[in-house]
Amino acid sequence: QIIDNEYFKHLIEDFKLSVQQQDVTIINKVCSAEVLLRIDKFHFTTALLNILENAVKYGTESIQITIETKHTNGEYSIVIKDNGIGIPEKNLPLIFDKFYRVTDGNLHNVKGLGLGLYYTKQIINAHNGTITIESQLHKGTTFTIKTPIN
Ligand code: ATP
Ligand code: MG
To answer: What positions does the domain Histidine kinase occupy (predicted)?
Structure first.
């Protein structure tokens, strides 16, 4: 499967259609590189959409999502950054756990199972990739996915 501007263009278009009613701005910083990644397109795409959907679910009034990709020596990285409610530092180590949700402090009353990020991590790991999170409460969250180029 070739991962390129076209792939991300379609991903962003599909995603935008699903959030039409909301105030969501997507900043596309996808690099121009055409990279051949051996991926399961359905699952890989669903994993990325999970992160984008979270950015909307846990966003504030004016949601801004930046998607940036980089192609460096033997590695392809995808960085998805939002300006949402953020996650307290103490909750970050558990964020990829099955059924884990941040509920303390009445941070949000959005429904979910706590499975999205668990699934996303399983899928990225199954592609020999890694996913990491950085977050600042009330500022936003950034996910970084790195996959080896085969
Ligand atoms: P679902 O199974 O429907 O995806 P969920 O969204 O609650 O449910 P995850 O996607 O696994 O589950 O996310 C786990 C928890 O991490 C969320 O409940 C939320 O508290 C927190 N979280 C995830 N993404 C973000 C984000 N972009 N900004 C702030 N908090 C987030
Ligand atoms: Mg989710």
So the answer is: 1-150
